[in-house]
Design goal:
The protein is an alpha/beta fold. Helices cover 37% and strands 13% of the residues.
């Protein structure tokens, strides 16, 4: 029996009708009943029917009235023989819609949990898990080819080099983050990528949506009402929400941030479909924000948002993005990447996105959005001369008020200033005697205030404050990615990277049996020259020099000569002209190693005798060809 959620083709009324007509007895109707059960499930809370849609790999909820368009009153009459031979057979009628809505006793409550089976029972209550399911079956990483691993490595390297600007600590966090998402675990942080156009921030999320998790688990939108609006049925069963280039007004930033923060922090999500009762489910939704402009008004002390240090180094590099795009489209790479993510999730089962790492972009955001009160203290108390021992509160507040007037900012009240300094910096007022009078004042030195600002991350290296050196982050290990992937998949090597591009085949291997010398790349030519330079060249085969000069220069004048189209033919010509193979040359000393290296200076090569050299006229011809 095929369970609900396993069908691969759409429901067909014609198929249901055929199965009913093919039934010869009442017992034969089990086939049509199983067919209906594989698509439809009666449910309560909300009242109605859930239908499995294979084309979108999702469940859709319909009211009883709506579903009658699909579960038709198809009927068939059966005649059951009577136990008394003298009595006529009993007539029994089967009506499909009546059976499903009245005689069917399977009624479930909906739930959405990637960790549970399609149908399960809890405390006697039957549940249907409306989570759509994963598009791939996990495979062992060792089952994939080296080519597949090389293509997947390009994607990992893009995350490291572009998304994270080579920062391995951030790269490892991102890989674990997506690993947890792929396993259906909620991440309690938001990935925030704010970059210029064409930097390559969206290519990874598009790849994950298209080839890794599928559209049934990833929802991408530029409509802020997905978060701010009252109806959000499109988020049901989704693991990843991609908010891309939302056209939000500055007034919406705060609302959007608060709504996102609530969804990030909460373990319960309420799904509200239009004209239907809201239903609460387990929250497994994680969020990525991609934008070219400011899209969120992130609070200065935010603990949920991860600002990625996206690099612009590949901007405009069309060849690079074409190569990366081809790697992503290569058959099997999406499945391999998904298997990698699931292996990472298995290796780090407790990772949930907390705590998020501090990045350069996050630090810059904190400094650039410092509230006016703290910006005043940095400008006037740390860098200026306002601060002194036992500074009266009235004097401090008057200086702050004058600063706000200059900046055209509305100042906070004196009470709010005092509470803010106490809560954020631990600065409380005291009541010392100043000039014989007891006043309320702040008693903190510049060094103590500077230390508090440094601990908060409110000082940037561009602030150029005297006696402050911002420590530089240590450089990441360039081999860290290899070591991490080797830990996840022990069958691959953790050797240092030779190049940031995918492995290239040795060009000499592709030119072992060329149809003509012109088909070989010039990069293989030096090897040919090396081999030939160990051979004495009598004048009666000087034509070989002319051909070689043509080959090195790309001049076809001598390359089309049929006598020199095959390297083997060149060898035979040499043997015919000299009478012995090259390795038996009389000019070579006896018992000399076969692979003796040639001298670094061709003019000092002892193998070439003076009489073997070309004449001045012949050299002029060769030089003219090379010069062309």
């Amino acid at each position: 029996m095929i369970e609900i959620g396993e069908q691969k083709t759409a429901y067909s009324i014609e198929t249901a009708k055929r199965l009913i007509n093919e039934a010869e007895t009442i017992d034969d109707l089990i086939t049509v009943k199983e067919y209906i059960y594989s698509y439809f499930m009666l449910c309560s809370q909300p009242h109605g029917v859930y239908m499995w849609c294979p084309d979108t790999n999702t469940f859709e909820h319909y009211s009883i009235t709506e579903i009658t368009m699909l579960i038709r009153p198809l009927k068939k009459k059966f005649y059951i023989p009577s136990e008394d031979p003298e009595q006529p057979p009993k007539k029994k009628e089967f009506l499909l819609s009546y059976w499903f809505f009245n005689e069917n006793t399977i009624v479930c409550k909906p739930d959405c949990d990637p960790s549970k089976s399609r149908l399960f029972t809890k405390k006697g209550q039957s549940y249907i898990n409306i989570f759509p399911g994963y598009p791939h079956e996990i495979r062992n990483l060792s089952e994939f080819s080296a080519e597949d691993h090389a293509y997947a490595k390009l994607i990992f390297e893009h995350i490291r080099d572009i998304w994270c600007s080579g920062n391995w600590e951030l790269t490892e966090y991102i890989l674990k983050w997506f690993g947890g998402v792929s396993a259906g675990r909620k991440m309690y942080s938001i990935l925030y990528l704010k970059t210029g156009q064409g930097w390559g921030k969206g290519i990874i999320t598009d790849f994950i949506q298209q080839y890794v998790l599928g559209k049934q688990l990833v929802f991408k939108t530029s409509d802020p009402q997905t978060i701010l609006g009252s109806f959000n049925a499109q988020l049901q069963g989704k693991l990843l929400l991609l908010l891309e280039e939302m056209p939000t007004e500055r007034s919406d930033w705060n609302s959007l941030y608060r709504a996102l923060k609530d969804k990030v922090a909460s373990d319960i999500i309420e799904i509200h479909e239009k004209y239907k009762t809201p239903v609460q489910y387990k929250n497994v939704l994680s969020t990525v924000v991609l934008t070219n402009e400011n899209a969120l008004r992130v609070e200065n002390d935010d603990r949920r948002t991860v600002f990625l240090d996206v690099s612009p180094t590949r901007k405009g590099d069309l060849d690079y993005f074409k190569k990366l795009g081809n790697a992503m489209k290569h058959p099997g790479v999406g499945l391999l990447f998904y298997s990698y993510l699931r292996a990472i999730a298995k290796a780090y089962p407790d990772f949930d996105g907390n705590p998020p790492p501090m990045t350069d972009a996050k630090h810059e955001h904190i400094v650039s959005t410092l509230p006016p009160l703290f910006q005043f203290m940095k400008d006037k108390c740390i860098s200026g001369v306002v601060l002194r021992p036992n500074l009266p509160i009235n004097e401090f507040y008057n200086e702050y008020g004058f600063y706000c007037v200059q900046k055209n900012i509305k100042p906070l009240s004196k009470i709010t200033v005092g509470r803010t300094l106490s809560n954020e910096l631990g600065i409380s007022s005291i009541r010392p005697y100043v000039e014989g009078q007891r006043v309320r004042a702040y008693n903190i030195t510049r060094e103590e205030l500077l230390e508090k600002f440094l601990n908060k991350g409110w000082i940037h290296e561009l602030d150029e404050i005297d006696e402050v050196d911002i420590p530089q982050k240590p450089k990441s290990d360039p081999n860290a990615l290899n070591q991490f992937l080797a830990k996840i998949n022990p069958t691959i090597s953790a050797k240092p990277e030779e190049s940031k591009n995918s492995p290239k085949k040795d060009e000499s291997e592709t030119c072992k049996k060329p149809e003509s010398p012109a088909e070989c790349s010039k990069s293989s030519a030096p090897e040919v020259v090396k081999k030939r330079r160990l051979i004495p060249r009598p004048k009666n085969i000087i034509k070989y020099d002319l051909w070689l000069a043509s080959f090195l220069s790309g001049n076809p004048e001598y390359m089309d000569d049929p006598e020199f189209m095959d390297p083997l033919n060149l060898y035979n010509i040499y043997v015919e002209e000299t009478g012995d193979p090259p390795n038996e040359s009389k000019n070579e000393p006896e018992n000399e190693p076969e692979n003796e290296p040639e001298s670094e200076d061709p003019e000092l090569d002892p193998i070439i005798d003076e009489e073997d050299k070309a004449s001045p006229d012949e050299l002029d011809v060769i030089n003219a060809i090379i010069g062309n």
